[in-house]
Specification:
Layout: E1 51-57, H1 61-77, E2 81-87, H2 92-101, E3 108-111, H3 116-122, H4 129-135, H5 139-142, H6 145-150, E4 152-153, E5 156-157, E6 159-165, E7 167-172, H7 173-178, H8 190-200, E8 202-203, E9 209-211, H9 219-222, H10 242-257, H11 260-273, E10 287-291, H12 294-301, E11 307-310, E12 324-325, E13 327-332, H13 340-351, H14 356-366, H15 373-376, H16 379-387, H17 391-398, E14 403-404, H18 412-427, H19 433-449
Parallel strand pairs: 1-2, 1-3, 12-14
Antiparallel strand pairs: 3-13, 4-5, 6-13, 7-10, 7-11, 8-9
Helix pairs in contact: 14-16, 18-19
């Protein structure tokens, strides 16, 4: 299932040098797959008319059908509450903020964690601590630490994930072997990754690219591996952090080595050949960084590929192993929701708290990682992992102490956008890494000051 309709998806090459190629893959759900009924205890019907809740999400098509099935299960097990699932195509953020300002928001909305600080700071969503502490006092400890942190702002809980994902390095073992590399020894450090590139990249006599090794992209995703920091403990921006600089320097080293024009020509050649436009699926790229959802895509589009999965490499000496920029599908209750107590029951249930067995089964249908380790150890979820054992690497990464969220400040979305712009400037050689980060620091400081 597609993780987000507009998320930070890990394209297989540089977002600047190669993004126009559109090599991201769709994340297909399996809405026809059966999900065991929830084992949670249904509230007794009181004879009163059920409270109706409106739930907004961004999924469409078969993905939306799967969400509808999950909502139907909640309604069956909670006769005092009836949730209506509404798919909101397009710009759900703007539609939500407009509806909330007009006093007619949904009772629950799903979005990524990037919106949480801004929406919490502006009062668009309500803190959940009052309901959580009275109803599920151990709830925060039940969550993975990174999931709790993503859903919190100013030490209050504003959002609860019902599904998560993490990212790892996926590589083609046959390409490794053909290049004279040990397919069972993927790169652990950045230095090892760099040392492999000359063997993995292939060019013809004219210098045109025939195969890609790895091309760095999505600089935010690599920041935890480099032990970079976008903000300090007080929430002040630290764009010029020395490890951020090393990360930007590493990205630009690839931009200098590999010609952007020839990368574009390489992608165009894939289109003209009529084959897959995703170079990894067609054996034209050795390494990608992607989520667990990529595994069924590989099975579908490259069923004979011999691939491996490993944690993202990190710089020797100061980097962090098993690091990742994680995200997930988070449920929030708008500040002007009409039925917040009932909405909390839905948010809690969706997270899997108290109905871990059902959640474990449900999450396998979307190819998701649970929000809690208590779900991950359920037999159904363990069977899901054992079906494709490398899935465990993604689950373990989410549980790692080095899994980090996006900057948890009110201007976090603006900051993230400017980070992407700084990456573009570095990868197109328009700015030095030093200049790009100095400008980024000035931009976010100005934005915070002008609040």
């Amino acid at each position: 299932m597609k993780f987000f309709s507009k998320k930070m998806l890990f394209l297989s090459t540089s977002v600047v040098l190669f993004a126009m190629a559109g090599c991201g893959s769709s994340k297909g759900a399996n809405p026809s797959a059966s999900v065991e009924p929830s084992a949670s205890v249904a509230p007794k019907a009181s004879g009163k008319e059920a409270v109706e809740l409106v739930y907004w999400h961004f999924w469409t098509g078969d993905d939306a059908k799967m969400i509808d099935g999950i909502v139907d299960e909640f309604n069956k097990t909670h006769p005092g509450i009836k949730v209506k699932s509404v798919s909101i195509p397009g710009d759900i953020d703007t539609k939500f903020l407009t509806a909330n300002a007009g006093g007619n928001p949904p009772d629950i909305i799903t979005e990524g964690s990037s919106v949480v600080p801004a929406w919490a700071d502006s009062g668009a969503i309500m803190p959940l601590d009052k309901y959580q502490s009275a109803d599920a006092p151990d709830f925060k400890d039940w969550l993975y630490p990174v999931v709790k942190n993503m859903g919190s702002y100013n030490n209050q809980l504003y959002a609860v994930a019902f599904s998560m994902d993490a990212h790892a390095m996926i590589y083609n073992k046959d390409i490794f072997k053909a290049a004279g590399l040990d397919p069972e020894k993927p790169p652990v450090t950045i230095e090892e990754l760099d040392a492999m590139q000359d063997k993995l990249w292939q060019k013809d006599d004219r210098g045109f690219i025939q195969r890609i090794g790895y091309m760095p992209n999505n600089i935010r995703s690599w920041n935890p591996s480099f032990d970079g920091h976008w903000v300090d403990e007080a929430g002040n921006p630290t764009a010029t952090n020395e490890h951020n600089l090393k990360l930007f320097q590493w990205f630009q080293s690839y931009a200098k080595k590999y010609d952007a024009t020839k990368l574009a020509a390489f992608k165009n050649s894939l289109k003209e050949s009529g084959g897959s436009t995703n170079p990894f699926f067609s054996g034209k790229q050795a390494i990608i960084i992607d989520g667990m959802w990529a595994l069924p895509d590989i099975k579908k589009y490259a069923p004979n590929m011999n691939y491996g999965v490993a944690p993202m490499p990190y710089p020797a000496g100061y980097g962090k192993a098993n690091a990742d920029l994680s995200d997930g599908n988070f449920n929030m209750i708008p500040s002007k929701a009409k039925h917040p107590e009932e909405a909390w029951q839905f948010v809690k249930w969706m997270s899997g708290y108290g109905n871990e067995k059902y959640a474990a089964n449900m999450l396998t249908q979307g190819g998701w990682i649970p929000a809690s380790p208590k779900i991950a150890v359920q037999p159904d979820y363990q069977a899901f992992i054992n079906e494709i054992p490398v899935r465990k690497i993604f689950v373990d990464t989410l549980g790692s102490k080095n899994a980090k969220p996006l900057p948890g400040i009110a201007k976090g979305m603006y900051y993230s956008d400017r980070i992407k712009a700084a990456e573009e400037a570095v990868m197109t050689l328009a700015k030095t890494p030093e200049k790009a980060l100095q400008d980024l620091q000035a931009e976010i400081e100005k934005e915070i000051k002008n609040k």
